[in-house]
Amino acid sequence: MRRLYGVLATFLIVLATGSGSLAFATQTDANSQKPLADSPLTVEVPPPSDSAVRYYRTGNAWWCFNLLWSLAVPGLILTTGLSRRLRDRAENLTRGQWYLALLAYFGAYISIVGLVDLPRSYWLGFVRPHAYGLSNQLFSKWALDMSKGFGIGLVAAALFLWLPYLLIRKSPQRWWLYTTLLSVPLSLFLVFVSPIWVAPLFNDFGPMQDRQLEARILTMAQRTGVEFDRVFEVDKSVDTRRVNAYVTGFAGTKRIVLWDTLLERLDEDQVVFVMGHELGHYVLGHLTRSLLLLSAVTLLTLYGVHRVGSLLIGRIGPRFGLRGLSDPAALPLLLILLDLFGLLFAPASLAWSRYQEREADRFALELTQDNQAGASAFVALQTNNLSYPYPGTLYKVLRASHPPIGERVRFCNEYRPWESGQSLRYGGRFTR
Ligand SMILES: [Zn+2]
User: Fold this and answer.
1) Which long-range contacts (CB under 8 A, 24 or more apart) does 83-87 make?
2) For 317-369, what is each residue's pLDDT tens digit?
3) Which among 19, 27, 68, 250 is least surrounded, fewest beta carbons within 10 Å?
């Protein structure tokens, strides 16, 4: 085990120091500073403010720390023998009923981790965004949201955690395959219910206040053949000063949600462009494709956890009192492995996500043909969200789910195939 941690620590140190000097470095790309063209329509990318640069740099340091932290906490719980003691206590308490013992162990585990993690989550979730002027959330709302998150975690665990454990017990060699197969309908179910059962626990979702703008948006949606009866506006201004919008849900719960902060800070044309982007995700089937990709990643991850986990338990299990993969006391080991495999597959998943975002941008440009609105909307996103417009390569590879803002503005400025009579990539997906 010590050797594993040695290898792990070396890897992380290389990652952290290498990333500091190499790719997270905040040099702007040479091309980024020259004006794109002399066209009056070209929108310039403003240089990041001092606080945006600081936010970016400290954010990268935090990313490295968080990674170490997410490995160190379960690592300590496992190696100090605390995990084994918690399991013994849980089993005594529940008189050997494995499901109840599992739940009791899990409840104790997330309570301990939640407590140990409280200073870090308070700093990152409350102090830091306030220090950068990104939040005006009240402490009471932050604390309430944290407690709700904890409660939802417990309920979700009570409902679903037994499934993979039962499968490990019943089919020790094939559980990873069956768990993945089961995760497909389960993911669909969660995507279906989260907009109606989970999201409203944290914020108020209502119809868009500006009915005229909503009508304009719905008319655009009709052009794409996607059926939406309404657009949701959410009161994110109680939590943040950032601006955003997203698509979520599945079948009867599918919806486009606009943060009220976005509606406050962006003009009508910019909001319409953002909606074009969100519609693009729907029309191009991004949600379904992401779920398929997620299943593939889940399969590989669980297979990896199965192989490496079984190997490690064979080697070090007896020393830490672990009986097998289905032993609740092995949960910290499973979490460490899930984290490491998550890191391993992150570059591929993020590249896929960036590709989809670029195509949604392209769709919005072809649909609205309003390059000015698109480019200026991204500049508004940059300034309001303190985004760093030209992050380094390592940032992109390991962290970025969206293309850098600088690249998105440039794409909006340059992509105009309709002006030279070229055919549109998604021309067949909407009516004129
Ligand atoms: Zn998007």
Assistant:
1) 83/109, 83/320, 83/321, 83/329, 83/330, 83/331, 83/332, 84/320, 84/321, 84/322, 84/329, 86/328, 86/329, 87/321, 87/327, 87/328, 87/329
2) 999 999 999 999 999 999 999 999 999 999 999 999 999 999 999 999 999 99
3) 27
Split into its structural domains, the chain has a count of 1
Distance 77 CA to ligand 1 centre (A): 38
On the CB side of 413, CA atoms within 13 Å amount to: 21
Instruction: Tell me whether strands 245-248 and 255-259 are parallel, antiparallel or unpaired.
Output: antiparallel
- Distance, in Å, from the CA atom of 24 to the CA atom of 29, rounded to the nearest integer, reads 12
- Determine phi and psi for 256, rounding to 5 degrees: -105, 130
Owning domain of residue 366: 2-204+284-429
Question: Phi and psi (nearest 5°) for 259?
Answer: -70, 140
What tokens appear for 26 in the block? 């905040």
- C-beta of residue 8 within 8 angstroms of C-beta of residue 71: yes
The residues assigned a catalytic role are 278
CA dist 79 → 106, 113, 318, 332, 411 (Å): 17, 15, 12, 10, 50
Most distant CA atoms of the chain, gap in Å: 77
Q: Is 162 contained in some domain? A: yes
The answer to whether 380 and 330 have CB atoms below 8 angstroms apart is no
Ligand 1 is a single-atom ion; what residues have CB below 5 A from it?
357, 360
Report yes or no: 48 and 56 within 8 Å, Cβ to Cβ: yes
Instruction: Determine the 3-state secondary structure of 240 from DSSP.
Output: coil
**Does residue 184 sit within a domain?**
yes
Whether 57 is in a domain gets the answer yes
Q: How far is the CA of 284 from the centre of ligand 1 (A)?
A: 12
How far apart CA 191 and CA 176 sit, in angstroms, is 22
Which candidate, 384, 385, 381, places its Cα nearest to that of 361?
381
CA of 72 from ligand 1 middle (Å) equals: 33
| CA atoms of 91 and 272, how far apart (whole Å) | 57
- 389, part of any domain: yes
For residue 96, the CA-to-ligand 1 centroid distance in Å is 48
> pLDDT digit string (tens) for 262-271?
999 999 999 9
User: Are 389 and 404 contacting, i.e. CB atoms less than 8 angstroms apart?
Assistant: yes
Q: What is the DSSP letter of 202?
A: T
The DSSP symbol for 44 reads: P
